[in-house]
Write a structure and sequence with these properties.
Blueprint lengths: L1 H7 L1 H10 L4 E6 L1 H7 L3 H14 L3 E8 L2 E2 L2 H13 L3 E6 L20 H15 L4 E4 L10 H7 L4 H24 L4 E6 L13 H7 L2 E5 L16 H14 L3 E6 L6 H13 L4 E4 L2 H4 L4 H22 L4 E2 L1 E4 L12 H6 L5 E4 L8 E4 L9 H10 L3 E5 H6 L10 E4 L13 H12 L4 E4 L4 E6 L3 E6 L5 E7 L6 E6 L6 E5 L2 E7 L3 E6 L1
Parallel strand pairs: 1-2, 1-9, 2-4, 4-5, 5-6, 6-7, 7-8, 8-9, 11-12, 13-14, 14-15
Antiparallel strand pairs: 2-3, 10-17, 16-19, 17-18, 18-23, 19-22, 20-23, 21-22
Helix pairs in contact: 1-4, 2-4, 2-13, 6-8, 10-11, 11-13
The chain binds zinc ion (ZN).
Zinc ion binds next to helix 7.
Length: about 525
């Protein structure tokens, strides 16, 4: 019976194996999934069948999560079961409820505590004795303010103390002990999606990226309007994947998203944003969750898009992106401009996410985050003197001393301490902002709000409609262009493309549709 199912599912499995050098698809079995789904031969066969039907060629099998440790025998049997069927198999650890619990979130631990540190070390020694690669899910942080932490912190800020503490935990309690048990082990730090708060809770992207073997990125934007899980726009997945991709360089692995609070449409948008941001792998969290609630419908829709996602991956790979420099220095404070980059991207301004403020660009966007760079004022002055076009937030303008803001190349974006309000800007209000920012790039773009633009290399552009209705958009170039539809996602998405001289019309782009054009 199972053999028959496997034969039927072969096309996507074959395609995924052919393309895994370009884009790998993976899933995770949490420690509880291991207990509930991988405890028998039948359970393992069922999971293998689901993976093959979904194009999953790499599985992560977790040893620990929330006080539960999966049994060695179960883990080893599942590992060899998958390996025999041609899967790549790695381990995973989720550091929730390890030792002493934080005074903050009850899933999080107090790492100042020696007992917690010892437990942490034991978990990684155990995992490294089974697996050669270990992912750490994005709970490797702390929000504890207990007396022990307060005393150890001394005069430092919580952010400084926690960054030092978690860097030390990684080196002394994770990396060194795991490598002592298994000299071949590679350990992946997976960063959460909430990049503007990393440093406040002890995620330190510079030192931790240097210390770990590989990095991974949370791209779970879910559904902006969902009451429980919402509030994140789709561009966030793109911004953070590109930003951490630059920081991680060749260490950067994949992006990771889940089905919580999603519909089929918003679920697959997470996959598109992850791949569009040049992730080498996408991890579908997690097997157990994808079997219930919205999971099965989401996966069904994703399966239809996988061939297109491989095309998208090929289109972005080895092509640099063009656009507006959008720097967030590591550990920079967001003040009241939390995640402003994500919202600016939704306005149809093609951003180039980066950690560094490089003045040698044609056009840039700066927010309060830029103040982290002690040379920022001088850099801004240099750019304005060189007649570079610059967009800054009103919040940054208010905090700048000694920079003359009365400059024709400077555009101030009214954020008003509430980046979400940017989504209310009308097409007419957006037009002059886009015209001034895109001028130096030699294009004009016209579309309603929540239609993103990406410039991929010298010959591709992507327009993505995140609205629930159809939209018309146009792109104007300095000279006539050829224009060919290269890709449309979803598979039943549609757009009418026409051109008059240098103007390209993308008419009636269906809701929640990505269109790639070669020009
Ligand atoms: Zn504590």
């Amino acid at each position: 019976m199972l053999m028959v199912l496997r034969c039927q599912s072969q096309p996507l499995w074959d395609l995924a194996n052919e393309n895994k050098g370009l884009l790998k698809i993976s899933t995770l079995f949490t420690a509880q999934n291991v207990r509930d789904h991988l405890g028998s031969e039948q359970g393992i066969s069922k999971a293998i069948d689901w993976c093959k039907k979904t194009g999953v060629t790499h599985v992560f099998i977790e040893t620990f999560r929330s006080r539960y440790t999966a049994k060695r025998e179960t883990l080893e049997r599942a590992k060899s079961g998958f390996e025999e069927e041609g899967f790549e198999v790695s381990g995973c650890v989720t550091t929730t409820q390890v030792g002493k619990i934080s005074t903050g979130w009850n899933l999080i631990s107090c790492y100042t505590n020696k007992g917690t540190q010892k437990s942490l070390q034991e978990i990684f020694e155990y995992t490294a004795s089974i697996f050669d690669e270990i992912m750490i899910d994005d709970f490797l942080f702390t929000d504890c303010q207990c007396e022990e932490c307060e005393k150890a912190r001394g005069g430092r800020t919580w952010a400084d103390y926690r960054c030092e503490l978690m860097v030390r935990m990684s080196r002394e309690r994770i990396l060194a002990p795991a490598r002592a048990v298994n000299p071949n082990v590679k350990i992946i730090i997976k960063y959460p999606q909430w990049y503007d708060n990393f440093h406040n809770r002890g995620y330190e992207v510079s030192r931790e990226t240097a210390d770990y073997d590989r990095t991974w990125v949370g791209t779970e934007t879910r559904d902006y309007d969902d009451k429980r899980w919402g509030g994140k726009v789709q561009y966030e997945a793109y911004y953070i994947m590109r930003w951490l991709g630059e920081i991680g360089g060749p260490k950067t692995g994949g992006g990771w998203f889940d089905p919580y609070g999603t519909t089929e449409d918003t679920y697959v948008e997470q996959a598109r944003q992850t791949v569009l941001a040049d992730a080498k792998e996408m991890l579908l969290f997690c097997y157990g969750s994808l079997l219930r609630d919205t999971g099965p419908a989401n996966v069904e829709k994703l399966r239809t898009e996988i061939p297109g996602l491989f095309k998208l991956a090929a289109l972005v790979r080895n092509r640099s992106i063009r656009g507006i420099l959008a720097p967030k220095p590591p550990n920079s404070d967001a003040y009241d401009e939390q995640y402003v980059f994500d919202f600016v991207g939704m306005l149809g301004l093609p951003l180039v996410p980066t950690a560094k403020i490089d003045t040698d660009v044609k056009v840039a966007f700066f927010s309060v985050h830029a103040l982290k760079d002690p040379e920022f004022s001088d850099k801004l002055k240099t750019m304005l003197n060189e007649e570079k076009r610059v967009l800054i937030t009103d919040g940054l303008a208010d905090r700048l001393d000694g920079v003359n803001l009365d400059n024709e190349n400077l555009v101030v974006l009214k954020v008003g301490g509430n980046p979400r309000r940017l989504l209310e800007l009308t097409r007419e209000q957006l037009k002059p902002i886009r015209d001034r920012l895109l001028g130096p790039l030699g294009i004009k773009f016209d579309a309603p709000n929540k239609v993103a633009l990406y410039l991929i290399g010298e010959d591709y552009l992507i327009v993505e409609n995140f609205n629930d209705g159809s939209v018309d958009a146009s792109v104007e170039f300095l000279k006539p262009v050829k224009a060919m539809k290269a890709l449309v996602l979803p598979i039943d998405g549609d757009v009418k493309i026409s051109k008059i001289l240098g103007r390209l019309y993308l008419s009636e782009i269906t809701p929640r549709t990505l269109v790639a054009v070669e020009y």
